[in-house]
Every structure is written in C-alpha cells, then in structure tokens.
Amino acid sequence: MRSAGAVAALVLAIAVACGGRGGLPPEVPPLAKGPDGKEYHMVARGPYKAYYDRWGRLQFIEQDSNGDRRPDRIAHHAGAKTPHLIEVDEDFDGRVDRWEEYDATGKLVKVGLTRRGGGPDLWVFPGAESGVPIRKEYDEDGDGRVDRAEVLQAGRVVRVELDTDRDGRMDRWQEWRGGRLVAEDLDTDRDGRPDRRLRYGAKGQLLGLEKLAAAAGR
Question: Partner of 100 for a Cys bridge, out of 61, 86, 168, 184, CB 3.0 to 4.6 A?
Fold first, then answer.
C-alpha cells in the first residue's frame, strides 16, 4: 500500500517540475480536458500533467510512468496540497484497478480493489501504525453497497458482518475465535439491531439460541 511519504514525493515531484511553487506559473497555460472531461489549465512536465482551475487551484495530477501516453496514476486534489484519492492502473491496460483514499494529512485510509473489473468491490483498511489490514469490506453483488465485512486482528478474522437480504444494512454479526465460529447475532425483525444470538460448539454444532435483552424488553 502506498505510504504517505510516497504521496508527498509524488506531489513534490510535480511541484518541482512545474516551477517549484503552488498555483499557476506566470504564463497562463493552455486549456485542456482533465480526467473528468472538464476544461482546466494544464501544465505538462515529463511524465506528469497538472490540471488547475481558473483560480489556480490544483485539481488533478496525471502520471504516465511507462510512456504509453495513457495516465496510470491520477491524483485527485480538489484544490488541496495533498490528494484525497489516487486512482492507479497497475497493469497498464487503460483501466483503473486500484483506488487509494487519503485523509487531509496524507495518511492512507483505505484501498479499493476490483475482482471482477469495473469499479471497486473490495476495500482494505490498513492499521494506523502497522499498515496491516484491520478490516475488509466486500461488495459481492456489484450494487455499490457493502454486504460483507471482516474485522481482523493480527491477520486473522475475529468478526464478520453480513447483509444477507441486500437491503443496505447488516443483519448478521459473527464472532470468530481461532478460525471457528463461536457465536452469531441475528436481526430477525429487520430494525437494524440484533435480537437473537446463536452459540456454536467446537465442532460447529449449535449449542443454543438466546433472545437478546434489547429484544426482550420490547
């Protein structure tokens, strides 16, 4: 996963290439269509193209790292010094297959990946210190909504959240220990809150069904 230092290096490279200062250079650059199809003032330096709006605010940086005249990295700045999103074409086929989202300090928040082509259908959240994934979110049916999430500790799944009826809300919450399912909370009345709990034995057998306190008080 790209580090904040790598993002800073990318921004510094284009800043130096375009004169070492923010905003537009003294001569007004020509207009060109940006990644979103709108017109911007464009400054080209080597493998980089920087797109500025009419107020001199940086909107995009494109990088063509392999010289095929197609950008394989697009940094979305929206007027900020650091990008909030970097789109990457890792296999150079002209299509984005990696989406990196950053916070205002340049820290990586999550990485989107595509397993079927098209938009992201898997999001990976790195830990704040180690960078090791602590959460993964899946869009299994391609409707743009998360229907499965995994919480990880030291690389192992400890919790799974499921949207089984595909209504955009989780309705099953599983607890995992040592690679096995030990308990599962269910939302049987579709109010967004668990009201039943299943407990499982070491061999996966059902040990019991409990009515949760929140449901019992209704």
Answer: 86
174-193, pLDDT tens digit by residue? 999 999 999 999 999 989 89
Q: What is the pLDDT of residues 202-213, one digit of tens each?
A: 999 999 999 998
Label residue 108 exposed, middle or buried (CB < 10 Å: 0-12, 13-18, 19+). Answer: buried
Q: What's the CA dihedral at 152, 156, 159, 165 to 10 degrees?
A: 90
Written as one letter, the residue type at 18 is C
Separation CA 194–CA 171 (nearest Å): 7
In whole angstroms, give the CA distance from residue 119 to residue 66.
Answer: 23
CA–chain centroid gap for 29, Å, is 33
Q: Smallest Cα–Cα separation from 135: which of 158, 113, 116?
A: 158
Q: pTM score, two decimals?
A: 0.82
> Taking the C-alpha atoms of 178, 179, 184 and 190 in order, what is their torsion angle to the nearest 10 degrees?
140
Q: How far is Cα 103 from Cα 84, in angstroms, rounded to an integer? A: 6
- Give the residue among 25, 39, 81 at the shortest CA–CA distance from 58: 81
